[in-house]
Design goal:
Radius of gyration of chain A: 23 Å
Radius of gyration of chain B: 12 Å
CATH class of chain B: Alpha Beta
CATH architecture of the largest domain in chain A: 3-Layer(aba) Sandwich
CATH topology of the largest domain in chain A: Rossmann fold
Strand order of the largest sheet of chain A: 3-6-7-2-8-1-9-10-11
Chains: A alpha/beta, B alpha/beta, C alpha/beta
Helix content of chain A: 25-40%
Largest sheet of chain B: 5 strands, mixed
Number of domains of chain B: 1
Strand content of chain B: 15-25%
Largest interface: A-C, 55 and 55 residues
Oligomer: heterotrimer
Strand content of chain A: 25-35%
Order of helices and strands of chain A: EHEHEHEEHEEHEHEHEHEHHH
Order of helices and strands of chain B: EEEHHEHEH
Chain lengths: 294, 118, 297
């Protein structure tokens, strides 16, 4: 059975992407493997309570380091570094690891061979059992790490492998924000993209940017309009936009502080607001996604 | 001619073809002239942030390969490099052994890709 | 004086605070020669401040980064460049050198180490910087300038554009002038570039478990960079008091608590500033501005 990968993205932050994804994870239960690809600010674990059954360190790119015993203080490295990553204090040349880009130029030209390139520890990846009877693959980037999308790709690969091994039908991905490489790595090869938006000028602006990006990948799109009663005029404009761009309107959710109450209670909104319009709308949304992804 | 197989392990003709090209664990180069099967590790590409496909394609170029066979899709960068080097690409071979893949290739069971299929 | 407004999590209200604070300060600041505020949108992948702050465009310039091009006449196909490049941006074909400029980090190594000087560096466009004058709500307000940079789609790194935008601001405005940097979300390289030389960092958060979790990452980041910082809690009143507890326990100053109000959300949704219509929010900006003035440079 081919695994069906569904990714939830939003362009801008704060639209409710993680709340929606966590609700879908709850509704799917053991029908899905969950992947948290928002590695710069991973939050899914706060609602899914993973047990961190398996963890591994992740390396990407390199960083230079100077062996002061071999260094003759010629300063050549500092003169060629384009990233101002080499400084001199008390006659000791030192690499600033945060600024070092890992190009290796300094290591290559050091006349005394005092500079070495080492693989950079960029983050950690975990495979956990969640409290929702499914597996959560999640990761976090180290501070100041380059978010190239490689860790995102690794999270997705692991989720895919697990789904295959356990014969699980769906993979639900909490995608990265923005429009750069991490988002591309979240989207590529998926069967359905869910865009969570809000009826604000920022939300609408970022919806059009992100949908342009997804169009290039030729993947089916659906949209959840969160806080839809906040600005009825903009909600109407967004719906028009969805129609003209062949994006399915999956559901609308009201502006309601029950979302925050749920998070604060450590629950997804479908668990917290049972028998509510929000719960039934999200349940219908999951059904539509399952149909859309066939 | 020389043929490159992207593989998941180093086990001679029994090695399993890799679904990934750029980040395959290694490559076997088979020379039809000398009947030699040589392994090239792709270790250094496991760590690359971007451009693993470019570097992996370079291995095929360095071995003067005419054909590359991989188990899954071929990414756009690897495709661009191999295409410009006039190396024929055969993708979606699946996770079969190198022996089976070579046999399938000789029986014309694989289609050459003319555009990146990722 | 450079004030960076950042957050671990996206959507906490960085842009809301940056735009409202910049506009408020520009209306309040004294009339002397330093009476100016510069708002800089450094969320170059998704700059949104321009939806709330309009002005008259003064300058519109492309920004470039250096990448190598192949001079086939000089090249001997030795392959050194391919070996040198640590980012897989160079491939060596039998008769060609192929350069993938989108992967190039502009380190200059291949260009400077090529024995034949066959890889000169040229400028490649990466984004656009726009400089607006007389920005903000008040007509003919000469005190607010707005600078926005936007990264071209397909560009891999935001860092060079952020760096050049900051340089532009430093070149055009003296040190004493208040500059407010609207940062990208998160704690990765673009954020580091934005805040690493800031005189003061304001971390915006929401009082929820998500907000607290990401705030801790942001605090770790500013501490690692040795920046002076304080917290502003946005949508104060929702969630729980976890953030306040955390700040108390860690001796972190909270310099503003912007109340959760549907009216604010509604105005924001329309692209409007908030402080001139909601006194409770203006009160908080007064406090935040006072805190800024107390900072010793």
């Amino acid at each position: 059975m081919k695994n069906k990968e569904i990714v939830v993205i939003s362009g801008k932050g704060g639209t409710g992407k993680t709340s929606v994804t966590a609700s879908l994870a709850f509704l799917a239960g053991n029908e899905a493997v969950i992947a948290d690809c928002d590695v710069d600010a991973a939050d899914m674990h706060l609602l899914l309570m993973p047990d961190l059954a398996h963890s591994e360190e992740f390396f990407s790119g390199q960083t230079a380091s100077i062996n002061n015993a071999l260094c003759t203080n010629c300063g050549l490295c500092q003169s060629i570094c384009r990233f101002q990553a080499i400084s001199n204090s008390n006659d000791n040349y030192v690499i600033n690891k945060i600024d070092c880009e890992g190009c290796g130029y300094c290591a290559r030209i050091c006349p005394s061979g005092a500079i070495k390139m080492e693989d950079s520890h960029t983050g950690s990846l975990h495979i956990s059992n969640s409290r929702m009877n499914n597996t959560l693959v999640h990761a976090e980037l180290q501070i100041a790490a380059e978010n190239s999308g490689k860790l995102v790709t690794k999270v997705r690969q692991e989720a895919k492998r697990i789904a295959k091994e356990t014969n699980t039908e769906y993979i639900i991905i909490d995608g990265s924000p923005g429009i750069g490489c991490p988002v591309v790595a979240s989207i590529t090869g998926t069967s359905f993209v869910v865009i969570v938006t809000e009826p604000t000028v920022s939300g609408y602006h970022d919806l059009s940017r992100i949908s342009e990006l997804v169009k290039k990948f030729n993947i089916k799109m659906g949209c959840v309009i969160n806080k839809s009663d906040l600005n009825t005029q903009l909600t109407y404009q967004i719906k028009e936009f969805l129609i003209s761009n062949n994006i399915e309107l999956l559901t609308e959710l009201p502006y309601d502080n029950v979302f925050t109450k749920a998070i604060t209670a450590g629950k997804t909104v479908v668990e917290y607001a049972t028998k509510s319009v929000i719960e039934s709308n999200l349940a219908k949304c999951w059904d539509k996604i399952k149909i859309g992804v066939q | 001619m020389n043929i490159i197989f992207a593989v998941q392990n180093n086990d001679g003709w029994d090695s399993i073809i890799s679904l990934k090209y750029g980040r395959a664990k290694g490559f076997f180069c088979y020379s039809q002239e000398t009947d030699e099967l040589t392994y090239y590790s792709n270790e250094e590409n496991q760590n690359a942030g971007h451009g693993a496909g470019i570097n992996a394609a370079q291995i095929a170029i360095n071995q003067k390969a005419s054909v590359v066979i991989t188990g899954g899709s071929m990414g756009p960068k690897a495709f661009e490099v191999l295409n410009k080097a006039n190396i024929k690409m055969f993708t979606q071979a699946g996770e079969v052994s190198v022996l089976v893949a070579y046999s399938n290739f000789k029986d014309n069971k694989y289609n050459q890709v003319l555009a990146s299929d990722k | 004086m450079k004030i960076a407004i950042a957050s671990g999590k996206g959507g906490t209200g960085k842009t809301t605070l940056s735009t409202n604070l910049a506009a408020y300060i520009s209306e309040t600041i004294s009339n002397d020669s330093n009476g100016q505020v510069v708002l800089v949108d450094l969320d170059v992948e998704e700059p949104n401040s321009g939806l709330f702050i309009k002005g008259n465009i003064l300058k519109d310039e492309y920004k470039y980064r250096a990448t190598p091009v192949w001079d086939s006449n000089k090249c001997t196909l030795c392959g050194e460049c391919k070996t040198i490049c640590n980012f897989n941006a160079i491939a060596q074909l039998p008769n060609t050198i192929l350069i993938f400029s989108e992967l190039c980090h502009s380190c200059f190594a291949c260009s400077e180490l090529c024995p034949e000087q066959a890889l000169p560096m040229v400028d490649k466009r990466m984004g656009v910087l726009k400089h607006y004058q007389q920005a903000g709500n008040l007509p003919n307000n000469d005190k607010l300038t707005f600078i926005e940079s936007r990264l071209d789609i397909g560009e891999i790194s935001a860092v060079p554009l952020i760096k050049q935008t900051i340089e532009y601001v430093e070149d055009n405005f003296s040190d004493e002038i208040i500059k407010i940097f609207d940062s990208p979300p998160g704690t990765s390289c673009p954020v580091i570039e934005t805040i690493k030389d800031a005189d003061f960092v304001i971390l915006v958060t929401e009082p929820t478990p998500f907000g607290l979790h990401d705030l801790k990452l942001a605090v770790e980041t500013v501490k690692e960079l040795g920046r002076e910082f304080a917290i502003v809690i946005n949508r104060y009143g929702i969630g729980d008091n976890g953030v306040e507890q955390y700040c108390l326990e860690n001796n972190i100053q909270i310099i503003g608590k912007i109340p959760n109000m549907r009216q604010a959300a509604s105005l924001y949704s329309q692209g409007e500033l908030l402080y001139d219509k909601i006194p409770a929010i203006k009160e908080q900006l007064v406090l935040i501005y006072q805190a800024i003035n107390r900072i010793n440079r």
